[in-house]
């Protein structure tokens, strides 16, 4: 009788411990899940250039905008306007290849023009692009124009 009483007491102890653990998990879960939080951060703009695209994009602090060209893109113009308390916009490029026979002045082939507020447009082509070390910086609006000519040699080219 001593053995069976000890076993039933152990089972009761295990059951109560299990119930206590389930209650604690449920209490912690109900405190942390609450109502869904609203998204306070606006989604960063992503632009996919069509054949002839012209877009105006308002950017704020810490906004990262991505634009991509497609195979059939011929001209894509994007104007970035500063919003809020921003004082400057910075443009850098990742994947980039615009073939051009005049790689110094970018006059014979595909090119990207970047015009900062109050400055002259700067052209980029081949593998010459705005990088993290040498970005394109504008104190106001920044205009980016990509001009691509059709080519059978490089069908997947673009920015």
Account of the 3D structure:
By secondary structure, the chain is α/β, with parallel strands linked by helices. It contains one helix and nine strands; from the N terminus they run αβββββββββ. The strands form three sheets. Strands 2-4-9-6-7 form a five-stranded mixed β-sheet, with no helix packed on it. A two-stranded parallel sheet has the order 1-3. A hairpin with a 5-residue loop joins β6 and β7 (122-124).
Brief synopsis:
With 159 residues, the protein is of the alpha/beta class.
Mean pLDDT: 76
- The helix/strand class is alpha/beta
Rg (C-alpha, Å): 29 Å
> What's the tally of helices?
1
- How much helical structure, as a percent, in the residues? 10-25%
Q: In what order do the strands lie side by side in the largest sheet? A: 2-4-9-6-7
How is the main sheet built? 5 strands, mixed
Mass-distribution shape: globular
First-residue to last-residue Cα separation: 84 Å
Q: Are there runs of 5+ residues with pLDDT below 50, and where?
A: 10-41
- Give the strand content: 25-35%
What's the helix-strand series? HEEEEEEEEE
Tell how many strands the DSSP assignment holds. 9
């Amino acid at each position: 009788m001593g053995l069976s009483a000890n076993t039933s007491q152990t089972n009761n102890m295990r059951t109560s411990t299990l119930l206590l653990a389930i209650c604690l998990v449920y209490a912690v879960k109900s405190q942390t899940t609450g109502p869904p939080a609203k998204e306070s951060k606006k989604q960063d703009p992503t632009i996919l250039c069509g054949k002839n695209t012209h877009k105006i994009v308002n950017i704020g602090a810490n906004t990262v905008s991505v634009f991509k060209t497609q195979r059939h893109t011929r001209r894509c113009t994007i104007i970035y306007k500063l919003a809020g308390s921003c004082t400057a916009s910075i443009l850098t490029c990742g994947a980039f290849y615009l073939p051009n026979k005049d790689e110094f002045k970018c006059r014979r082939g595909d090119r990207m023009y970047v015009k900062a507020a109050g400055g002259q447009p700067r052209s980029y082509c081949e593998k010459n692009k705005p990088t993290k070390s040498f970005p394109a910086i504008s104190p106001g609006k920044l205009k980016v124009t990509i001009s691509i000519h059709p080519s059978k040699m490089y069908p997947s080219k673009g920015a």
